[in-house]
């Protein structure tokens, strides 16, 4: 590996750290904004919590990670090796 390759690797690590910081900052701003939005509109949310719970079901189905199906080993005791 020559000096140019090492400089390139160092530069990409620096950009990755900046991206991580930016994502963390944006996540914190979104959480704080969501808190204040929820606080201001609590009466509307509290009146419709059943519908929000029903809305959470399809969202959890979509976001739970379909790529892991079959990744875990089958360790059932009734199967013979």
UniProtKB/TrEMBL annotation:
Keyword annotations: Membrane, Transmembrane, Transmembrane helix
Domain of life: Bacteria
Spans through the membrane: 21-39, 45-63
Protein name from the UniProt record: DUF2933 domain-containing protein
Keyword Membrane listed: yes
Cross-referenced Pfam families: DUF2933
Alphabetized InterPro entries for the sequence: DUF2933
The keyword Transmembrane helix is annotated on this UniProt entry: yes
């Amino acid at each position: 590996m020559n000096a140019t390759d090492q400089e390139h690797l160092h530069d990409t690590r620096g950009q990755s750290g900046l991206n991580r910081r930016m994502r963390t900052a944006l996540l914190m701003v979104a959480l704080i904004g969501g808190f204040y939005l929820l606080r201001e509109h609590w009466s509307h949310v509290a009146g419709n919590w059943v519908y929000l719970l029903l809305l959470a079901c399809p969202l959890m189905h979509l976001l739970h990670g379909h790529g892991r199906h079959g990744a875990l080993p089958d360790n059932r005791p009734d199967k013979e090796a």
